[in-house]
Amino acid sequence: MKKIELEICQGTSCHLLGSQELFEAVLALPEKWRESIVLKRVDCLKSCRQGPNIRLDGEILSGLTAERLVLLLEEKFSLAAVGSA
Ligand code: FES
User: Fold this and answer.
1) pTM of the predicted model, to two decimals?
2) 47 in contact with ligand 1, CB cutoff 6 A
3) From the CB of 51, is ligand 1 less than 6 Å away?
4) What CATH number should be reported for the domain holding residue 37?
5) Which of 29, 52, 54, 62 could form a disulfide with 33 if both were Cys (CB 3.0 to 4.6 A apart)?
């Protein structure tokens, strides 16, 4: 299965807007999912006012909550499971 590339902004604005909760949500995922994610911390994705921001497989997404991020990752995992069936 192709790994999911996830960058979470840890810049000051995103940090103040809750990016640490996004990290914690990813770290709390089941291990088999975490192993499929390449997780990186980045300094700024240039959308500071809309944070917290991530880049998921090349797409910048803004204003995320931990719940929304987990849903997005679940979608990616279920699509990957369908694709590999
Ligand atoms: S601090 Fe996160 S986009 Fe700038």
Assistant:
1) 0.91
2) yes
3) yes
4) 3.40.30.10
5) 29
For atom 1 of ligand 1, the residue with the nearest CA is 11
Domains in the chain: how many in total?
Answer: 1
- Please state the rounded mean pLDDT for residues 14-37: 96
User: Cβ(8) to ligand 1 under 6 A?
Assistant: no
**Range of the structural domain that residue 79 is part of:** 4-84
Closest ligand 1 atom to residue 45 Cα is 3
Identify the pLDDT of residue 2: 84
3-state secondary structure the chain: CCCEEEEEECCHHHHHCCHHHHHHHHHCCCHHHHCCEEEEEECCCCCHHHCCCEEECCEEECCCCHHHHHHHHHHHHHHHHHHHC
Using a 6 Å cutoff on CB, does residue 44 contact ligand 1? yes
